[in-house]
Amino acid sequence: MKTELLHGTLDVMILKVLSWGPMHGYGVGERIEQLGGDALRIEEGSLYPALYRLERKGWIDAEWGLSEKNRRARYYSLTPAGRRAFKSSVSTWGSFAYAVGRVLNAAHAPVRA
Amino acid sequence: MSPPRWRRYLRFWRSDIRADVDDELAFHVDERVDELVARGMAPAAAREEAIRRFGDMPGVKNTLRRMAQQHETKMTRAEMFGVLKQDFRYALRTLRAAPAATAAIILTLALGIGATTAIYSVVHTVLLRPMPYANSDRLMMVFERVGQGRGSASPGHLTDWTEKTSSFEAVSAFVGRTFTLTDGDPTRTFGALVTPSFFQTGYIKPLAGRYFLPSETSAERIVVLSYPLWQSRFAGDTAIVGRVITLNGEQHTVIGIAPKAYTLTPQDEMLWTILPFRPEDRSDYGQHFITTFALLKPGVTMAQAQADLERVTEDIRRRHPDQMENRGVQLASFNEIFLNTASTQLWVLFAAVTLVLLIGCGNVASLLLARAATRRKEIAIRSALGGGRRRLLAQLLTESAVLAAFGGLASLVVAQLGIMFLVGTGPSWVPRLREASLNLPVLLFAVLLTLACGLLFGLAPALRVTRMNLQGELREGGRGGSVVRDRVRALLSVTQMAVALVLLVSAGLFLRSAERLTRVPLGFEAHDVTMMRVALPALRYPAASAVEGAFGRMLDAVRAIPGVSAAAGGTRVPMWGGSMDIGVRVDGKATTPANNVGHVRLVTPGYTEILGIPLKAGRALRESDMQAGAPLVVVVNETFARNVLGENPLGQRISGWTSADKPVWREVVGVVGDVRAFGRENVAPPEIFFPWAQKPDSAWNAFQRSVTILAQTRGDAVVAPSLRKAVASVDPLVPLWDVQTMDDVLAQAGATRRFNTMLLSLLGATGLILAAIGIYGVIAYFVTQRTREIGLRVALGATSPAVVRLVVRQAALLAVTGIVIGGLASAWVTRVLGTMLFEVSARDPLAYAAAAAVLLVVALTAAWLPARRAALVDPVRALGAAG
Question: What pLDDT, on a 0 to 100 scale, did the predictor assign at position B434?
């Protein structure tokens, strides 16, 4: 359960980052950390498997290109199918986060109906 | 570390997953190093830290490589599939564009593959499947070797083989008998007396109940029913097990029901009871009527078992030399005996139908070649636009595959019809013929055959087209390679005709055989003879006098029927039923009974006359011979007289079938002509006719109190119903069966041969038609290609007949080449037909000449149409055409 949650979480964040435009793997990781703060440290060992998984699902595409420093890098971009999946993931995630929040913020145990 | 430059060029040809993963992670590490260095770390330490952050770097790389590989495979597969779909759609379009040719191809394939599959189904069901018994590979049959042939065993032999050999798990005896069932409608059915070990030598789990125990004897009066009898007479109700039924007037308890698999043909035995075996039978080495089965012990070879049997038989010879003269023992595999006749015939049919299929494929290949030729411009353009040869080849092969697939599907319908036809009209003695169907192995065969055909006729045109000089095609008026193309199609046509000739020669040989056979004199003339078999139950007619009295009254009643001019009786009739043979002593000659063999018939006077068996010397049997106290006489046939009596047979005395050692001399008073009692193909057996009033003691037992009554009818009188009434008037409870005319029996006798001949002729004709179509195509194309040349000739003064001659000469050349090659092939191939032919050599010149003539005429006729077209060529148009 925990791995699923983590998978899903990382995947949806990657899709969000890529929705701003094509980016290489290092850049995706950096952006997520910048936005999420220190609480959201992405392990290198899980970032790239997530990217490859999303590529296999057909939600992102990859192409070799040149970075700002003229280094060869593999750039990922959202596919139309990925864009659609991203939209639905965001809403699911939102409802999920809200539900968890309600449970955790409950003042007392629920009354048996 | 940036990737070495040369690796980039590798990626141009194919993807390098390993390198890609390395490069991607290397980039990440480099970026991280830059960041850390910018923050103040030392470069070396920064690199270390960057790598450490990945955790298990090699592990991660492996995971990524694996994932990338999977992704790549998925993509490649999707692409291939897409290409395949495209090829398929294109192939369908192309085929639809030429509906006539496509239909012709699919039809040819459907017929060819369907017919081959149908015959394979029979071959598989009858020959290739193992027999249904447990351990059927160890199942053997044991015969007494008689001279050069094989014969039934005597009870003494059976006893010794069972008790004194060590090579067999079980030895069993089988004696066929007819039984009367009288609960309900009295009917006669064929059954068998067997030893309890019979169900051990050939074991299949009983459907219900059980089989005989080793300790049980005929005193138990128990019976095992066969599946068909159980279904037809006992309504397939298992409650019959344990109940009592009446067999031949005696009550028997049903102890078990055998499964369907035991009944291999409709003529097989329908029930089994235990063979009665008296103590004195153990030393009876003189009467031979037992069929013996034996189950080899595991690990024992046939050679070892044969040696074992010979040892025991030698011992018998020592003890009874006069019974064993010229006799021995022969072990044979059950499968070989049982399937021998069917085997040759079926394989010949299978070979023939495959040849027809080959001719058909030749036509398809020819058609495809022709079409490929007309599409060469299109293919040239596609090739110029970048279609690699491999892609073109794939496209063309897809077309062939689609054609083959449709043909294969359609062939299933033909195959099903073919199977129904073969099962319906095939000879009934072929074991398990009824079980032939479109089952899994047969379907598999059809699929494989379809694939093979597709490859066969698809590859040739495809390779030819893609190897063409495409440059030449694109030039205006490109006509490159037409001569070469002609040659391939011409070669195809020649091959087709050679194969067709082989088929025609085979059919011709069979037809000659059949014709020769009909000329063989049977030795008797029995038109207007109606016959029926009657048997009396032993219980109500125990004594011989009672038996003969009843039969005598029946004969009188039959004679009284209006329309019947004469009647007689006999224990067996030629061409209809087996016989019993005995050995005789000849008065005054030192020869032993084992050598003086004759088939026995107990008859009434008039028997030989009604059957039209000519009298050659002496006299026929008369009424006075049937009186009590008359001198003992017999009539023999020419073969017996020649073999046993030598010169002056009349007046000699013979003695046979006597229980004691005291001879009972009977005088030979007449010699009748030979009769081919076992079929036209088989030599006439030696025969002895006893007046049945003078029969040897146990004769009625041996013949089961059963005779055939013959009635000679006047003109068109149909007397079958009256015959039944006549018999019923003497004893209403006695069933009669098999009421037939002799003409019917004779017609049935040739059924198998006729069936084979018909099928082979059909296949020959089909092959001929297909080959004719083939040569028509080639000649038509030849004319089209030579239009300009013909136009030129006509313009230069060639007459119409001259043009026709030109074309026909081409056709004749092809036909004659085909005939010569086919003739040589036939001479080599028809050797295998040897045993199936009757008095016709496999090189019979008439058959060959006729086949060649037919082929030549048909080929020239097929060429005539295009020839006429050639003669009508308008030279102006022909020369002006842009080719």
Answer: 87
Q: Reduced to 3 states, what is the DSSP secondary structure of residue A81?
A: helix
Is A68 in the B-facing interface, judged by CB distances under 8 Å?
A: no
A52 interfacial to chain B (CB closer than 8 Å): yes
Residues B278, B155: Cα–Cα separation, whole Å: 10
Q: Closest partner residue to B54 among A45, A69, A73, by Cβ?
A: A45
Residue A44: closest C-alpha in chain B: B54
Residue B193 CA to residue B783 CA, distance in Å, equals 73
Tell me the three state secondary structure of residue B574. Answer: coil
Task: Average the pLDDT over each of A106-110, B380-384, B801-805 and give the range with the smallest value.
Answer: B380-384
Contact between residue B334 and residue B138 where contact means Cβ atoms under 8 Å apart: no
User: What would the pLDDT profile of B59-93 be if each residue is shown by its tens digit?
Assistant: 889 999 999 999 888 888 988 898 889 889 988 98
Q: Do A49 and B67 touch (CB under 8 A)?
A: yes
Instruction: Return the ∠ at Cα B293 (arms to B275 and B259), rounded to 5°.
Output: 75
Q: Least CB-CB distance to A24: which of B27, B32, B67?
A: B27
Rounded-to-integer distance, Cα B284 and Cα B269, Å? 26
Q: Is the pLDDT of residue B273 over 90?
A: yes
Q: What is the pLDDT of residue A94?
A: 81
In chain B, the residue whose alpha carbon lies closest to the alpha carbon of A41 is B53
How large is the average pLDDT for residues B775-796?
A: 80
Q: What backbone phi and psi angles, to 5 degrees, belong to B576? A: -145, 85
Angle at B296 between CA B293 and CA B298, to 5 degrees: 155
| pLDDT value for A1 | 34
- Provide the b/e sequence for B203-222 (b: ≥16 CB within 10 Å): bbebbbbebbeeeeeeebeb
Q: What are the residues of chain B with a beta carbon less than 8 Å away from any beta carbon of chain A?
A: 2-3, 20, 23-25, 27-28, 30-32, 34, 53-56, 59-60, 63-64, 67-68, 70-71, 74
What is the Cα gyration radius of chain A?
17
| B67·A53 Cβ contact <8 A | yes
pLDDT at B573: 84
Q: Residue A7 pLDDT more than 80?
A: no
Distances (CA, A) of B347 to B124, B265, B438, B625: 11, 20, 19, 53
Name the pTM for this structure.
Answer: 0.76
Report how far residue B362's alpha carbon sits from residue B366's, in angstroms, rounded to the nearest whole number. Answer: 6
Judge residue B507's burial from the number of C-beta atoms within 10 Å of its C-beta, 0-12 exposed, 13-18 middle, 19 or more buried: buried
Strands, DSSP E only, in B1-112? Answer: none
Q: Which of B400, B401, B384, B383 is nearest to B392 (CA)?
A: B383
Contact B60 A48 (CB under 8 A): yes
Total beta-carbon pairs less than 8 A apart between chain A and chain B: 56
Q: What percent of chain A has pLDDT over 90?
A: 32
Residue of A nearest to B52 (CA): A44
- The reply to whether residue A26 touches residue B32, judged by beta carbons under 8 angstroms, is yes
Q: What single letter denotes the amino acid at residue B317?
A: R
Q: Which residue has the tokens 């369908």?
A: B92
Q: At a CB cut-off of 8 Å and minimum separation 6, what does A23 contact?
A: A17, A31, A75, A76
Name the residue among A25, A43, A71 with its Cβ closest to that of B55. A43
A58 close to B (CB below 8 A):
no
Q: What is the pLDDT of residues B221-238, one digit of tens each?
A: 999 999 999 999 898 888
Could you give the CA distance from residue B23 to residue B20 in angstroms, rounded to a whole number? 5
Angle between helices B720-730 and B544-559 (to 10 degrees): 140
In tens, the pLDDT along B275-287 reads 988 888 888 887 7
pLDDT for residue B485? 57
CA distances from B529 to A86, B556, B573 (A): 97, 17, 12
Interface probe for A, chosen from B31, B64, B77 (most Cβ of A below 10 Å), is: B31
- What pLDDT shows up at residue B115? 92
